[in-house]
Amino acid sequence: MNWYSELYIGKRAKPKAKKIIQKLKRNAGQVDIYLITLAANGQDMLDIIHSAYLKQPAVRRNLPMIVGIAKGYDEALELVQQMLSETYQATGIYRIPEYLMDKVGRLPKERQQQE
Description:
The protein has 115 residues and is of the alpha+beta class. The chain has one domain. The chain is built from five helices and four strands. A four-stranded mixed beta sheet has the order 1-4-2-3. The longest helix is centred in the C-terminal third of the chain and has 19 residues, at 73-91. The protein is globular, with a radius of gyration of 14 Å.
């Protein structure tokens, strides 16, 4: 799994963030945990997926960079709104993936190939 170095973590997920990440790495099931990833199709900005999808080997193998973890779908939406707001305030546009990668000084491989 590829993790964003400045991972966004929801308020309800924060108290158990280390435990959640350990379980995700060990492929243990978790109820109500959602991941925010860079879009798998390369055209959208982000995807929100339930952690249960990681049980599928093809999904796990092809999972884009994880940029956020939330407890509950509503919290995942709040994190995406936070990312949108932060991106717009910093750049004046809504290009979340580019903003996130610029923030840590790199672009994901699939975006580098498109440029």
